[in-house]
Amino acid sequence: MRERCDKAGSRQDARGCEGGCEIGSLASEPADSDQSARTRLVSAFDRWEGPVRSGLARMQARGELSERADIAALATALLAAIQGGMLLSQVRRSSTAYRQAVSAVIDHIESHLVDAVTLTDRVG
Q: Cα–Cα distances in Å, from 30 out to 4, 12, 46, 66?
């Protein structure tokens, strides 16, 4: 997860932090005025968030992620950090905000990881 987000930050840097996220760029205007467009945007964001949620759920099912972890909230938080970080990076022309926001959410997700000793005890 962290590696993919780092690569996205590097892509932002390579573009001079111009352009931001295509979905996010499209979302602000029509979301308030065009119900059909808003519905399509919700679907687009859900398709983007879905694999994150699924991956976290698989980790939880394998016992790698605490049962207390709220998978939906963690996936939404990561998506929000990506979107907000990209917007700030675009405005500031620096990927620092993106990298900080995403790193903070990943740190939070990692705080729900079950440590290796506990996993070994469960398996062994």
A: 29, 25, 17, 38
The ranges assigned to domains in the chain are: 2-123
Q: What is the DSSP track for 37-96?
A: HHHHHHHHHHHHHHHHHHHHHHHHHTTSB-TT--HHHHHHHHHHHHHHHHHHHHHHT-TH
- Which letter, b or e, does each residue of 21-58 get, where b requires 16 or more Cβ atoms within 10 Å of its Cβ? beebeebeeeeeeeeeeeeebeeebeeebeebbeebee
Superfamily of domain 2-123 in the CATH hierarchy: Tetracycline Repressor, domain 2 (1.10.357.10)
> In this predicted model, what pLDDT tens digit does every residue of 66-114 receive, in sequence order?
999 999 999 999 999 988 888 888 888 888 988 999 999 999 999 999 9
Q: How far apart are CA 83 and CA 23, in angstroms?
A: 9
